[in-house]
Amino acid sequence: MHIIIVGGSFGGLTTAFDLRRLLPRRQHEITVISKERRFIFIPSLPWVAMGDKTIADISFDLDKPLTSKGINFVAAAVSRIDPEARKVHTDSESHDYDYLVIATGHRSANEAVPGLGPFDGPGHSLMSPPEAEEARDTWPAFMDDPGPMVIGCAPGASCLGPAYEFLFEAHHALKQRKIRHKAPITFVTPEPFLGHFGVGGFGKIRQFLEGELEDRDVRYHTSAAISKITDSSVELADGTAFESRYSLIIPPLAGVKPVAEAKGLANPKGFIPVDPYYRHGDFENIYAVGVTVALPPVEETPVPVNFPKTGHMTEQMAKIAARNIAADIQGGEKTTHELMVECIMDMGDEAVHIVADPVRPPRDVSKISKGKRWLWAKRFFANYFLWKMKRGATRSPKWVW
Ligand SMILES: Cc1cc2nc3c(=O)[nH]c(=O)nc-3n(C[C@H](O)[C@H](O)[C@H](O)COP(=O)(O)OP(=O)(O)OC[C@H]3O[C@@H](n4cnc5c(N)ncnc54)[C@H](O)[C@@H]3O)c2cc1C
């Protein structure tokens, strides 16, 4: 059998390494095809935007870690997927597969709001390495000549955590330079309340974040629908406009082009509907994991907020998919479980540790805990994760992590 995995990040690498352990090398070939030839620890992009880390610090080349484990690596962008013919195409080659795993992440749907940037408008973002580097390159000029700034998320956003992280980090950086009083910060979010995060909130996160923003003199607006970003303002659909000299706004996400365009593969937003085993409903030999998967919102909100897919959740999906592909091939019971989430949000000079199990309410566990120790834990974890991924050490002591 030949299993092709498209994507070399959280989802693609975890699936590849787990499958390599589950399927004998001599009988089954595994190939990872990735547009980006490096694994980049995306959760550290806010640190890149702040100039604390470089992309080189938070990444490694995929070639050796994969080939040394007996996994083929093709550094190329997939331009077309043909599920009927069981082929994926790059600009120069085509590859046949028996099983396909799609782990291509997202495309930032910047077209949703005029002015969402940074390459399509004056807004800044940090959803991809080039965008985080652009934010880093433009941030010092703002620090030298500060003014009002708006940080937030556009309607339909699903990855809201980085907006909060950038907010706390920007506040901290301005405060350290003793220029915070020159930069009024407004936080604008489609969430019905702070800390909804597309999962209906958890524990006391709402009261916690309201208190933290109020402590920092940050004005916030919830259920807000950003409709336009200009050089000097962020505008809402109800006509409200906030003056802003530096606007960092998280866009809504969509599926990448070859997935969105493949006949019968994706929903209208380009995300892939899957069954509880992460297998496509119509194509039995196609699995999808991570941000590319279509997962419905937890509830309807006045302004749309979509369900998040974190790195931790992506790993869980990848582990489930790998087990089920091995079960398809070798025989055995298929398996699945509810996703849970554990993450640490940087707050500048400290951090908050969040656990929600399961992610969708109602839950058995909803916990938050704040402290400097969590900032150290976050820094340690970022390096540890790179170290373990480089060695293919995706085996987890617990089934869920
Ligand atoms: C700024 C930011 C901060 C975050 N912070 C956290 C956090 O603190 N904790 C947490 O758990 N999660 C966090 N997340 C979410 C986490 O980064 C994602 O859940 C995770 O990256 C998803 O992994 P993935 O494999 O699905 O996709 P991605 O990481 O997006 O990777 C997609 C892969 O597909 C490849 N690819 C794309 N298109 C093609 C193509 N056409 N052909 C070939 N290859 C292709 C890319 O090169 C890449 O290798 C954050 C996300 C962002 C943007």
Structural features, described:
With 401 residues, the chain is an alpha/beta fold. The chain has two domains: 2-106 and 255-335, FAD/NAD(P)-binding domain, CATH 3.50.50; 110-252, FAD/NAD(P)-binding domain, CATH 3.50.50. It has helices at 10-22, 45-49, 63-67, 129-144, 161-176, 205-215, 257-261, 311-330, 372-390; strands spanning 2-6, 29-34, 38-40, 59-61, 72-75, 78-82, 87-90, 94-96, 99-102, 107-108, 149-153, 185-188, 219-221, 226-229, 233-236, 241-243, 246-250, 253-254, 286-288, 341-346, 351-357, 365-371. The strands form seven sheets. It has a five-stranded parallel β-sheet with strand order 5-2-1-9-19. A four-stranded parallel β-sheet has the order 13-12-11-17, with helices on one face. A three-stranded antiparallel β-sheet has the order 6-7-8. Strand 6 (78-82) and strand 7 (87-90) form a beta hairpin. Helix 1 (10-22) runs parallel beside helix 8 (311-330). The radius of gyration is 21 Å and the shape is globular. Flavin-adenine dinucleotide binds at residues 6-12, 33-36, 42-43, 45-46, 77-78, 103-106, 126-127, 159, 161-162, 256, 258, 290-292, 309-312, 314, 343.
